[in-house]
Amino acid sequence: MRTSVGIIGAGPAGLLLSHLLHTQGVDTVVLELRDRGYVERRQRAGILEQATVDVLRASGAGERMDRQGLPHHGVELRFDRRSHRIDFPSLTDGRSVTVYAQTEVVKDLIALREAAGGTVLFEAEALSVDGVDTAAPSIRYRHDGAEHTLDCDLVVACDGFHGIGRRAVPEGVLTVSERTYPFSWLGVLADVPPSCEELIYAHHERGFALHSMRSPQVSRLYLQVDPDDTVENWPDERIWDELDTRFAVDADWRLARGPITEKSITPMRSFVAEPMRHGRLFLAGDAAHIVPPTGAKGLNLAVADVTLLARAIGRWAADRDESLLDAYSETALRRVWRAEHFSYTMTTLLHPAPGEGEFDRRLRLSHLRYLASSPAGSATLAENYVGLPVV
Ligand code: RFL
Ligand code: PHB
Question: How far is ligand 1, taken at its centre, from the CA of residue 80, in Å?
Answer without folding.
Answer: 34
